[in-house]
Structures are given as C-alpha cells and as structure tokens.
C-alpha cells in the first residue's frame, strides 16, 4: 500500500506554517517564564490568566504580550497557510472558527483578568469554544485517502478533549466550584496548542510548487 501523495503548495503555506509554529512555541515558553516569576503559582489551582494579572504576576507583561503574539501570528499564519488545508466546507468553517479564536486571544492579552474581567472572560470563552469546535470541523475535511489522513483522528480527539473540558469548566465558573481550575483550563487549551504545532510541522513539510520562469518557453523557441 503506497503512502498518500503530498501535493505541491504555494510558498505562502510554508510561511503560514512557520508563523503558526513560532506563535505556539513562544506562548508555551512565555507561560513557563511567567510561571517561574510568580510566587507559589500552582498548575492545578491557578488559572492560566493569573499569569497576566497586572496586580499579582511579576511578569504579567511577558504573558500578555505573548498571548497577543499568539493571536496575531495564528491569525496571519492561518490565512497564509489556508490553501494547504484540505478543501471544502470543513476548511472554510473550521479555519474561520480558529481565526475567531485568534482574535479573541489578542483581546485576552489586551484586557487582563483584573483590568476588565467581563471582556477578559468573554474573550477567553471565544478562544476555548471556537478553538475546540474548529479542530473537530477541520478534521472532517481530512479525508482518509489523503496526506491528512493520519491527522483526522487526532484532530477529532483533541477538539473533543477541549470541548468536553469546557463543558465541565464553564458552568462551574458561576459558582466557583471548579475542581482544580488550573488543570481543567489546561485541558481546554493544551489540545489546541498541540494541534497547532503538529499541523504547522505537517504544512512545513509539504513540497512547494516550483516557480515557472516567465518567458523561458519563448526563449527556448527562439534558440
């Protein structure tokens, strides 16, 4: 059985892949850096957004700038790499949802939890829900017979983990009864980051369409 053929893509797909990958990695690194400077920060009980709290997080600027960068790089990267994803309604709807999540990530960084809790909370929800749903919908276009086949199940699984975790997390926020909110929030966010990095690597490995020199054919005819 032969492996699915990987089609040629435009050079912009490689650029988009790089932006998505860099955006994801820099955010993970920034979280680690901000955590290291936050006294007694707990991955289990502290929210991710606590790292951007301007009153309690010593390195809040690092985190907030990083999540804005994640949103901007993700948005531009998705647009640049658009043609590299499988065609169809899954691409249109799924990537549009991920673009929405990218814009919301920028708002999360611009409006920290202690500065504007309402906007911050709505923006966070607009990252979580469209992000998880976007993964599932994009996965519908990853047909088993294509080079995306090995990513189909993973896309579904990661999206479902995000959505199931969010379904538990969201109702408990009103009553402050979330069990280990930091852990649950990471179960919402981590699948999206893992998916983004894995997809960026796959897009970066796709062969780029060779450039055709304008006028080369006419020159050969004259020679």
What topology does this entry show?
Layout: H1 11-36, H2 60-81, H3 89-110, H4 117-140, H5 149-173, H6 181-205, H7 216-222
Helix pairs in contact: 1-2, 1-6, 2-3, 3-4, 4-5, 4-6, 5-6
- End-to-end separation: 45 Å
- Coarse shape: globular
Task: Summarize the amount of helix as a percent range.
Answer: 55-70%
Q: What structural class is derived from the secondary structure elements?
A: mainly alpha
Largest sheet: none
Average residue pLDDT? 90
Low-confidence stretches: 218-223
Number of helices: 7
What count of structural domains? 1
Kindly summarize this structure in a few lines:
The chain has seven helices and no strands. The protein has 223 residues and is mainly α. It has one domain.
What does this molecule look like?
The chain has seven helices and no strands. Helix 2 runs antiparallel to helix 3, helix 4 packs antiparallel against helix 5 and helix 5 (149-173) runs antiparallel to helix 6 (181-205). 37% of the residues are buried. It has helices at 11-36, 60-81, 89-110, 117-140, 149-173, 181-205, 216-222. With 223 residues, the protein is mostly helical. Helix content is 68%, strand content 0%. The chain has one domain (11-208). It is globular.
């Amino acid at each position: 059985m032969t492996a699915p053929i990987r089609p040629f893509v435009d050079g912009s797909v490689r650029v988009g892949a790089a932006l998505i990958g860099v955006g994801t990695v820099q955010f993970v690194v920034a979280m680690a850096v901000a955590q290291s400077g936050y006294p007694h920060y707990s991955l289990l009980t502290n929210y991710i957004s606590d790292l951007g709290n301007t009153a309690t997080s010593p390195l809040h600027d690092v985190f907030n700038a990083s999540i804005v960068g994640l949103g901007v790089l993700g948005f531009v990267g998705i647009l640049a790499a658009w043609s590299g994803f499988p065609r169809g309604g899954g691409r249109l709807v799924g990537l549009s949802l991920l673009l929405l999540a990218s814009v919301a990530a920028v708002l999360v960084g611009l409006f920290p939890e202690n500065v504007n809790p309402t906007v911050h909370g709505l923006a966070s929800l607009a990252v979580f829900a469209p992000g998880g749903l976007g993964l599932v919908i994009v996965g519908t276009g990853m047909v088993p017979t294509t080079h995306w086949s090995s990513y189909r199940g993973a896309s579904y699984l990661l999206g479902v983990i995000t959505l199931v975790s969010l379904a538990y997390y969201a109702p408990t926020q009103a009553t402050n009864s979330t069990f280990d909110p930091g852990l649950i929030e990471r179960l919402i966010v981590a699948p999206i980051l893992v998916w983004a990095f894995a997809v960026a690597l796959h897009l970066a490995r796709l062969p780029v369409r060779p450039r055709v020199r304008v006028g080369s054919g006419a020159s050969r005819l004259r020679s």
